[in-house]
Specification:
Oligomer: heterotrimer
Number of strands of chain B: 2
Radius of gyration of chain B: 40 Å
Number of helices of chain C: 21
Helix content of chain B: 55-70%
Structural class of chain B: mainly alpha
Strand content of chain C: under 5%
Radius of gyration of chain C: 22 Å
Strand order of the largest sheet of chain B: 1-2
């Protein structure tokens, strides 16, 4: 197996763990954690494709990932703020009860 | 020397006095009265000076014309005119006026509006004098109306009395009816003659060139001058109280007695006679036309004759001392018109002058009686005044003799004889003469009745019993007027026709006093019949109490009451003209409200209808379509919204499934 | 004096006053009144200042201002002043301050009242001076707006209805006129009144309008005619007038009758007559009857009014109709009418009558305002009695105004009416004869008014207490009556201003 394939397998695993967590947990914070895991799996892919790709000299992959991590941080902040707002409303953070945005 | 360009001073002096009286405070009695009398006295002196100038060249018309205002390329000119007619009238008006002003000092002493009285009187004098010296029909008309204004103000002097207020209005409106005829005549004359100046060195409308043009036969053989003359005569009918517009004159007696004397006896009412005398060349211009159905002067003669007789008849049955005199004035003015109509304008002016003196005398005498008897005017409640008011009685008797036409000594006799002779010589008809002679009997009769009732018998009321002779301020003018009432007759006797020759500017040969003596004898006889009958009925057995029935009323109640109600003219006019005017007014208002207003309303309703229809169409057509479309849109939205469950897990699941499907698709494509 | 925009100054000074009042909302009420009065008086002051340099002028425009304005429509800012305009400017200058003084004690929002009033005054002046139809029409329509609000907001009980009636009626007329001028602009390409007049004089305008074909040339004439006839108002387009005059506050009634009714007559002289000599002549037979109807029926209707303001309103219809009677008599006549002076007399009389009626009718409205102010708003003919005993000075001055209105010689009304009758008689004798009836009935109703209100024992609203005139009221009535006397004796003062114009008109009659 080439290093690229190993990295891709790792990131797929990471993604699946995140997806399963996001879909199965009812705690909003854990759902958020799942989402973060999936994001990091994608980041891992960026790094891998850059490092083992045709042009590893230009620092394109690393820049991509840095931006992505910054977005993830912002996203985590917004997500946690949402969680707090939900908590204020319904005195818990169970995601299946937060259905106010129903159309 | 009084040349025509200074003539304006004569009316200007009283006008200035009127202005002073208008702004003077109520306390300024001496100022107002003093300036009024002084101004009129000065005007009298100026008039005498003017008379001297005029008499020096009696046949000429001295004029001073000037432009009043521009009119297009031309001007409207007016001017002053000096001839013996104007000058004589000025002298008469200022003389009689000054005496009446002096009398008023006493008569109006207690009135709180003393200053205003003299203001109005001066205004009247100014307007009247302006009328006399006007050399333009336009200027004459202006003064004519101002005279009417002064008359309105003075009749309504005691305006808080409703009768006085109503009488003032009636006088103004009745005379205005005539004045509109005069106005039309004037604009017609302006149109046809090209000028309103009477004399303008050959270009005036009373001079040969214009008269020839005006008297040329027009439609139906009638001359334009006939129509113009008749329209101008309308004005004279109104102002001089001729039938059928005489109704205002008796009511005008609501004013103070000096007003009645000055305006409604001596001067203003004579303005109509003066007007016709002034435009006499125009009035008589159509005489040369033969075979014309109508001459202007014929109408004048008949109107005058009817008025003379009618006024005398009504005067017989009046019980108010001033109303008897008022109808007597109507009657005498009728004589003057009669004289004008039969072609002797000189006789008319002669009678005008003598009448001014003796009628002013009679009215002031009546005023003296009324003043002494505390405003008691009903002759049935007077009586027995002769011994207590000797000067008033004596002078009143002189006036009565002059009016009745007592032969030889009194002025009224000579002027009346001149009129009757002229009427006797009229070729058209002898009817006016007959009317005039009948009037002579009646005049003597009603004056005898008046004197007998007022001065003889017992006093029949409290105030009459306490009456005393008035102060010298009031009796002195009476005496001076009495002198005039006697002496003035001698300036125009057949034996010494000074007045006639001066007025016409031709030498008139003196005639024997007894030429045409038949008619004179007849009229003298008639005077004595009238006097005798009056004395027989009223004098011999004098009335003893106020409520007693009049002897004539006892004998012919229907006629007496009919005459006493002034032949019911007022009722007739109220029933016809008054009602017609009211109907016309109602019609005009109704037209406004229902026809013109209705049409607008209809238009508005139509607009409203269009609006309603438009709204209905909108709601049924356009709105329904819009509603349907938006309903569909809303349904679609609702269906879409159902997918939004609000469950975050559901969304994630959908994402995951979609990701798996996407991955599978990519794998199935062969991993390219 | 040339070069300085005097005419602009005349028009816009009242507007400047209005703007100043609008910008100073905190101004003391009393100071605001004085300010408004000063700006209102400016018209008279400037008008009189122009007199010395005006006198030498011949028939044409003594002062003009002409600047390009809207090039696309060929609209110029064109003002001009000739004798006719000057007479009306002076009239406005006299009536407007008097009207302001009449409403001096207005307590409901006086600042706004004065702003609207000055706007109204400026618009009226603009109408009298504008020589371009576009500009003229702007002023013409602008005058409606303040008039509407003045009637509606400060008027009596029925004011709202009267104001709507007034504005809708006049708007409808104006709309017709605007359409007419749109057609004229379409065929000639100009809106300058002076140029259009020259075009009309040589027949070009009629020829160009004939291109429209069918009934349309006549419709253009009718549209313009209707707009003016409603404003005057010519019988039978007058039904808005009695209600509007009666319900408006006294000062506004004075302005409406004194100035606004003259705007319509002015339009007849400045627009309809020069632009449509042919159609006007064809229609004059009918129009003469209408004017006569206004003279006679207006007077008779006044006879039946017990509300004094309505009475004066109807008498206004009667008086203004004389002006149009004279004009239509001149236009109706054909061939050589200028010869004997009849046309000159009629036209001169009509202009004089415009001025005289403005003064007399405004003074009469003012007197009724005095009666209203003393009696808590009552103005019935039968609700007073013996006022002359209580207030002799008022009675005297009101009497002068009344006699001036009924055309007594020696006062201003007479010369105008005499000249009109003189002219009309020469041109249409029967109309003059029938018109006399109007003179008579006018005398009857005015004297009845005076008898009921001033004479007799004190009664009604004057029974207990009735003050004589205050200083402010004297300041209006004394100059007005003095002017009546002055013009009655020396009419040349006014006639001299516009007589060259009369000569010009009569020289150019067909």
């Amino acid at each position: 197996m080439s290093p690229l394939q190993i990295c891709l397998l790792l990131s797929s695993g990471l993604f699946c763990v995140g997806l399963a967590g996001a879909l199965s947990r009812s705690n909003s914070i854990l759902v958020l954690l799942g989402v973060e895991l999936m994001l990091n799996a994608a980041n891992l892919n960026f790094i891998a494709f850059w490092r083992f790709g045709p042009a590893p000299e230009a620092a394109t992959g690393i820049v991509f990932v840095i931006f992505s991590i910054a977005v993830a941080a912002a996203e985590a902040a917004v997500g946690l703020a949402l969680v707090i707002a939900i908590y204020r409303h319904q005195k818990n953070i169970r995601l299946q009860e937060a259905t106010r945005l129903k159309g | 020397m009084m040349s025509p360009q200074y003539l304006w001073l004569i009316p200007a002096l009283p006008a200035a006095a009127a202005a002073i009286g208008a702004v003077a405070p109520r306390r300024g009695r001496a100022l107002a009265a003093g300036s009024a009398i002084a101004a009129l006295a000065a005007a009298f002196i100026l008039s005498c000076a003017a008379l001297r100038v005029a008499l020096a060249t009696p046949a000429e018309h001295l004029v001073h014309n000037f432009a009043w205002f521009d009119l297009g390329d031309g001007v409207v000119a007016v001017g002053w005119l000096l001839d013996p007619l104007a000058a004589l009238m000025c002298v008469m008006v200022t003389a009689v006026g000054a005496l009446i002003f002096i009398f008023s000092l006493g008569y109006m002493r207690e009135d709180e509006n003393f200053t205003r009285f003299f203001c109005f009187m001066s205004l009247f004098a100014a307007a009247m004098l302006g009328l006399l010296i006007a050399n333009s029909l336009l200027l004459l008309f202006v003064c004519w109306e101002l005279v009417g204004l002064a008359s309105y103000l003075l009749i309504g002097f005691w305006f808080h009395r409703p009768e006085a207020a109503a009488a003032a209005k009636k006088a103004f409106i009745t005379t205005r009816i005539g004045d509109l005829g005069l106005l039309l005549g004037m604009v017609w004359l302006y149109h046809a003659g090209g000028t309103l100046l009477f004399y303008d060195h050959g270009n005036g409308c009373l001079e040969t060139a214009a008269l020839a043009r005006l008297a040329a036969p027009a439609a139906g053989g009638l001359a334009v001058s006939t129509a113009i003359g008749l329209l101008i005569f309308c004005g004279a009918i109104g102002k001089s109280g001729q039938f059928p517009l005489h109704v205002w004159l008796p009511d005008a007696m609501e004013g103070p007695s000096p007003v009645s004397a000055l305006i409604h006896a001596a001067t203003m009412v004579a303005a109509g006679v003066f007007l016709i005398a002034r435009v006499y060349p125009l009035m008589s211009a159509d005489q040369a036309l033969a075979g014309v159905p109508l001459h202007a002067l014929t109408v004048v003669a008949f109107i005058g004759a009817i008025t003379a007789l009618m006024g005398a008849c009504i005067a017989v049955a009046q019980n108010d001392i001033k109303r008897v005199l008022a109808f007597s004035t109507v009657s005498q003015l009728g004589y003057m018109m009669l004289a004008l109509g039969v072609g002797s304008w000189v006789a008319a002016i002669f009678h005008l002058l003598t009448h001014a003196f003796f009628k002013a005398l009679l009215f002031l005498g009546a005023g003296s009686v009324i003043h002494a008897a505390h405003h008691e005017q009903d002759i049935r409640r007077l009586g027995g005044l002769a011994p207590r008011m000797r000067i008033t009685f004596a002078t009143f008797a002189v006036g009565m003799m002059a009016l009745a036409g007592m032969p030889f000594l009194f002025s009224g006799f000579w002027s009346k004889e001149a009129i009757l002779h002229a009427a006797g010589a009229w070729p058209v008809s002898l009817l006016p003469l007959g009317f005039g002679l009948a009037g002579v009997v009646l005049t003597a009769f009603y004056m005898t009745r008046l004197v007998a009732e007022v001065f003889f018998g017992p006093a029949r009321s409290e105030p009459a019993g306490h009456a005393r002779e008035n102060s010298a301020l009031m009796t002195a003018p009476l005496l001076m007027l009495a002198v005039g009432a006697v002496g003035l007759g001698f300036i125009g006797t057949p034996a010494w026709p000074w007045l006639q020759s001066k007025l016409t500017g031709e030498a008139i040969p003196a005639r024997s006093l007894f030429e045409g003596g038949g008619l004179m004898a007849l009229s003298i006889g008639l005077v004595f019949i009238g006097l005798g009958a009056g004395w027989a009925i009223y004098g011999r057995r004098a009335r003893t109490e106020a409520a007693a029935l009049d002897p004539l009323a006892a004998r012919a109640p229907v006629i007496f009451n009919f005459l006493g109600a002034r032949m019911k003219f007022d009722e007739l006019y109220a029933g016809t003209v008054g009602r017609l005017a009211r109907w016309a007014g109602t019609l005009a208002v109704g037209l406004d409200r229902w026809v013109w207003g209705g049409m607008v309303l209809l238009l508005a309703k139509f607009g409203e209808l269009v609006g309603v229809a438009d709204r209905e169409a909108d709601e049924a057509g356009l709105n329904a379509g819009f509603n349907a479309v938006s309903e569909k849109l809303r349904d679609a939205g609702r269906a879409y919204a159902r997918a939004q469950t609000g469950r975050a897990h559901g969304y994630l699941r959908a994402l995951a499934v979609a990701f798996v499907v996407l991955a599978l698709l990519i794998i199935a494509e062969g991993g390219r | 004096m040339n070069g300085f925009p005097w005419l602009t100054l005349i028009v816009f000074l009242p507007w400047a006053g209005a703007a100043l009042l609008a910008l100073l909302p905190k101004l003391d009420v009393r100071a605001g009144r004085v300010l408004a009065l000063v700006f209102s008086l400016s018209t008279l002051v400037v008008g009189l200042a122009l007199l010395p340099s005006f006198k030498h002028a011949a028939a044409g425009y003594a002062f003009t201002e002409d600047h390009a304005w809207i090039a696309a429509l060929q609209v110029n800012y064109h003002l001009g002043l000739d004798g006719l305009s000057l007479v009306l400017v002076l009239l406005t200058g006299l009536v407007a301050p008097g009207a302001l003084l009449a409403s001096w004690r207005e307590t409901r929002d006086p600042r706004f009242f004065h702003i609207l009033f000055l706007l109204l005054q400026g618009s009226a002046l603009g109408v009298f001076l504008a020589l371009n139809f576009f500009l003229w029409f702007i002023f013409w329509e602008l005058s409606l707006v303040p008039a509407f609000f003045l009637i509606k907001l400060w008027g009596g009980a029925g004011a709202s209805r009267a104001a709507y009636q007034f504005i809708i009626y006049t708007m409808a007329g104006s709309a017709c006129m605007l359409l007419g001028f749109a057609a004229i602009f379409a065929v000639t390409g100009t809106l300058d009144l002076a140029r259009l007049a020259t075009l009309a004089a040589d027949g070009t305008l009629a020829a160009k309008l004939a291109v429209l074909g069918g009934f349309w040339p006549k419709a253009v004439f009718l549209g313009v005619f209707l707009g003016l006839a409603v404003k005057v108002p010519l019988f039978p387009f007058h039904t808005w007038l009695p209600a509007a005059y009666a319900e408006a506050p006294v000062g506004v009634s004075m302005f409406l009758t004194g100035v606004m009714s003259k705007m319509g007559v002015y339009g007849f002289f400045r627009i309809l007559w020069p632009l449509f000599p042919g159609p006007l002549q064809a229609a004059s037979g009918v129009l003469l009857w209408l004017a006569l109807g206004g003279v006679v029926l207006g007077a008779f209707a006044a006879l039946r009014q017990t509300d004094l303001k309505r009475m004066v309103a109807y008498s206004s219809i009667n008086h203004v109709s004389y002006c149009l009677l004279a004009l239509f008599a001149v236009t109706a006549a054909t061939g050589g009418v200028g010869a004997d002076g009849g046309a000159a007399a009629a036209l001169s009389g009509a202009v004089l009558q415009m001025f005289n009626h403005g003064i007399s009718a405004a003074a009469l409205f003012f007197c009724i305002g005095v009666l209203e102010s003393r009696s808590g708003g009552r103005r019935g003919r039968d609700e007073f009695g013996g006022v002359r005993s209580a207030a002799p000075v008022f009675a005297g001055l009101c009497g002068l105004a009344m006699f001036s209105s009924l055309g007594l010689p020696g006062l201003n009304g007479f010369i105008g009416e005499f000249l009109i009758f003189r002219g009309v008689f020469a041109l249409a004798p029967w109309a003059a004869a029938a018109g006399c009836l109007g003179l008579l009935v006018t005398a009857i109703f005015l004297l009845t008014f005076y008898q009921r209100v001033f004479h007799g024992p004190r009664a009604g609203a004057a029974a207990v207490e009735f003050r004589d005139l205050s200083g402010r009221e004297l300041a209006v009535l004394v100059p007005a009556t003095a002017l009546m006397l002055l013009l009655g004796v020396l009419p040349q003062i006014l006639i001299g201003l516009y007589n060259p114009l009369i000569s010009f008109w009569t020289a150019h009659l067909p």
